[in-house]
Amino acid sequence: MAKECSSTTCSKESCEGCPSKKKNSFLAEMNKFSDISHVIGVVSGKGGVGKSMITASLANQMAKKGFRVGILDADITGPSIPKMYGIKGPAMASEEGIVPIVTENGIKIMSINLLLPNEEEPVVWRGPVISNMVKQFWTDVIWGDLDYLFVDMPPGTGDVPLTVFQSLPVEGIYIVTSPQELVKMIVTKAYKMAEMMNIPVLGVIENYSYLACPDCGKKISVFGESKVDEAAAQLGLFVGGKVPVDPSYAAAADAGAFHTVDNVHVEAALEKIPQ
Length: 275
What we know:
Elements (H helix, E strand, L loop, with lengths): L18 H5 L10 E10 L7 H14 L4 E5 L7 H5 L7 E2 L2 E2 L2 E2 L5 E3 L16 H13 L4 E9 L6 H9 L2 E8 L5 H14 L4 E6 L4 E2 L6 E2 L7 H8 L3 E4 L4 H8 L12 H4 L5
Helix pairs in contact: 4-5, 6-7
């Protein structure tokens, strides 16, 4: 039986003529100065669920454990990762590629906001151009040696998630949602897209799950009762965490100090991430 190849086990030379290469013909070639062991996507069926915060929280927790971590901000029209970590461009480039900017806790970041002359300028591009830019964040960025690259996807099931699933060797995704009546539909849409693309779904994480009373600790369901367990059970998914509404997280993001956030509520999600 022919040996299966991947971006982490084979070199360009050893993969020539390999059956797996033909099967994965849509995969874009990683920058030759990058060596990334695992690519994990973070998606949501709709906007406003705090997906970028969950992406950054997962990255922080993995960096805290000593892993070499990066975040590819694929949300081209609504990037927020650089602001959360207090980093600004322009990112430097050479003939070899673009160099990501490193946060204070050692996470490598690449985002469109690190390439624009003014981070407040809107990106008014059509879908194919946006998708190509995301692909270039894989092919043209010098990520160096990384254990984990987290991809912060835009909401929905459009061009960019399709490009990422086809062009990057994504090993699994987490679906982010929030407590509301639409949760089952939102999670199911993202789940079915991943299933169509043969991308494993690691689980679902519920954000804004509750507010803990600062005086008595009682959990208050600000956005309604949690429905994530029911939705996850129907799809056979693991619940990777229920993250509360925590004003300190928002304050850290607004201050560009998200590197200080220790979100223990996503610790369970780390168990499903490939080692």
